[in-house]
Each structure stands twice: as C-alpha cells, then as structure tokens.
Amino acid sequence: MNPRLPLYLLTAALILLGGLIVLYFYMDTSGPREKPVTSTGEALVGGPFELTDHKGNTVTEKDFAGRFMLIYFGYSFCPDVCPTELQKMALALRQFEQQGGDMARLSPLFITIDPERDTVDVMADYVQAFPPKLTGLTGTVEQIAKAAKAYRVYYAKGDDPGDGAYLMDHSSIIFLMDGEGRYVRHFTLSDSPESMTEALLAAIG
Fold this sequence. Notes:
The protein has 205 residues and is α+β, with helices and mostly antiparallel strands. It has one domain: Glutaredoxin (3-Layer(aba) Sandwich), CATH 3.40.30. The protein contains five helices and eleven strands, in the order H-E-E-E-E-E-H-E-H-E-H-E-E-E-E-H. A seven-stranded mixed beta sheet has the order 4-3-7-6-5-10-11. Strands 1-2 form a two-stranded antiparallel sheet. A two-stranded antiparallel ribbon has the order 8-9. Helix 2 crosses helix 5 (193-203). The protein is globular. The relative contact order is 0.18.
C-alpha cells in the first residue's frame, strides 16, 4: 500500500469540503444567494461642481479647499422652509463664533434648486438677509442638477399657474463637508441652532 495514499485522500477530502462550503454559500434550495457587500464606511455624498456665485464669479469645490462647507440647497422664492433653515444656520454660526469657533475655516453656501428664477442678481439680494459670509450659488439647469445629484438632493418643480409663481418640492438638509470636500454629517429640520453649534465646534473648533 502506498504510504502517501492517506495524505492524498485527506487533501482530496479537504478540497471537496471547501468546494461544498462555497457551493452552500452561493446556493441553497431557494436559489442563489447574494454575495456579501463590502463598504468603505464613507458616505457617498458630495462631489465636484461648477457654479456661479452671487457676485457673478465662476466657482468650483476647489475654491473652498481647506475650509469646511456648510451647504443648503433651496430657492429664494421658498415661502417657509428655506428661510427658516437659513435663519437657523445664521443663528448657529453666530453662536459658533461667539463660543470661539474659527469662522475663517468655514464657508456657508446656499445652492439654488431653481436656477430659472434665481439669477445672480436675485441671489445677491437674497443672501444679504442671512449668515455673514453666506455665498449664494446658481448656474445652468444642468449644473444645478449635477450638484444636487452629487449631494443626493431631491427637488422637483411644482405646477406653474402661468405667472411664474410656482413652488419647488425639495429635500431640506444642511450638509457639513470637511476641508477636502468629504461628508462629515448633516442637519435636518429637527436639529436646533444649539445642536448645530455644538456639532460645528466639535468638528471644526
């Protein structure tokens, strides 16, 4: 009897067992199983954009490199949610600065989702009522759509009665991005100015 035969048999058995384990993982009596999904743990929010600020300058995300961005998507003709959220942002930023926060490291941005009405001149007037240093950004329909898609922002134009006084349906989220344009966290309608201030101080200092 070949003395190596048991070793061959053991090796073959291990190979067979491994194959059965793999087969069991991908198949069962109900059909094929999905492969496990791996994740980097990094939120897929944010990305490059090219827009026009309220002074008429073309800007991209690179113009804000090295600074945290506090970004809100809305529109100047919004009757309630947008001004409420921007006022909350303004109060949070005042508290942030009063508590020793470094405003030089932070850029608050308001990106319109209604570029047809929110021209450069309209945005220039609108941002005056809100946070100091607030930059209003507009652009072409395509540019706005690209920016909104990068930030997973939903928006849709409502019915137009014919006089241009339509409303925009949209998500209401304030995004905090770091100096490299990476997602840090977001704030929703349920967040207070105080909770925003606390989060900003923790992230930026």
